[in-house]
Specification:
Layout (H helix, E strand, L loop, with lengths): L2 E2 L8 H5 L2 E4 L5 E4 L4 E7 L3 E7 L4 E5 L18 H18 L7 E7 L10 H15 L6 E4 L5 E6 L4 E6 L2 H17 L13
Parallel strand pairs: 2-4, 7-8
Antiparallel strand pairs: 1-8, 3-6, 4-9, 5-6, 5-7, 9-10
Length: about 200
């Protein structure tokens, strides 16, 4: 079941579409403080975090998928967990470096992790569990979320204001999104971060 704590924005979908759209694809990470920019992505099992420095009015979005799982207690999410950690660290560090540099000013919203294909392992649930545990481990709270469920989502994020628009997509679109995500994940060559990378 999807969980949500997002405030309803007074802006409509059409208002957002008239802005400068910046698409964030799987493996992508974008950061901006331009008031005209709207970041856009489509998620099935994937996760996107939308993170904003509330003082500097700078924000960004990432988009990642943990495609593998391991039975090992040491690496319960599989080798791709390092890719997920890298995606989160990359976004947090980019927002901090372009903003005030203060972790306490970050507002974090997370989306995605749907179980789109009932015939496959619920990769989305693993993604949701991962992002929650990652943020908890780094001392961050999730300000709002729309996670899980059995549908794909389109996310529009205004980094300068922090407003987010979520549109839940129909089942046929969701299946197409799922196929595309998994195909990209299978082709992906993960370049994990160095062991000594630290959040600041």
């Amino acid at each position: 079941m999807a969980t949500s704590g997002a405030r309803v924005s007074s802006e409509t979908h059409d208002d957002l579409e008239r802005e400068k759209i910046l698409t964030v694809n799987q493996g992508g990470c974008e950061v901006s403080g331009d008031r005209r920019v709207v970041m856009s992505t489509v998620l099935g099992s994937c996760i996107s975090a939308c993170i904003r420095d509330s003082v500097a009015a700078v924000g960004g979005m990432n988009h990642f998928l943990l495609a593998e799982q391991s039975g090992s207690a040491k690496d319960r999410y599989g080798a791709s967990a390092r890719y997920g950690a890298f995606a989160m660290e990359q976004l947090i560090n980019s927002v901090l470096s372009k903003g005030t540099g203060r972790k306490g000013n970050l507002v974090i919203k997370v989306f995605g992790g749907g179980n789109i294909n009932s015939l496959q392992t619920d990769v989305g649930a693993s993604n949701v569990e991962f992002v929650r545990e990652f943020l908890l481990g780094e001392g961050y709270e999730i300000a709002s979320q729309d996670l899980g469920g059995n549908f794909a989502r389109r996310i529009l994020f205004k980094p300068a204001s922090g407003r987010v628009f979520v549109k839940r997509l129909d089942a046929d679109t969701g299946k197409t999104v799922c196929r595309q995500e998994m195909a990209l994940a299978r082709k992906r060559t993960v370049t994990p971060p160095a062991d000594d990378i630290e959040l600041f």
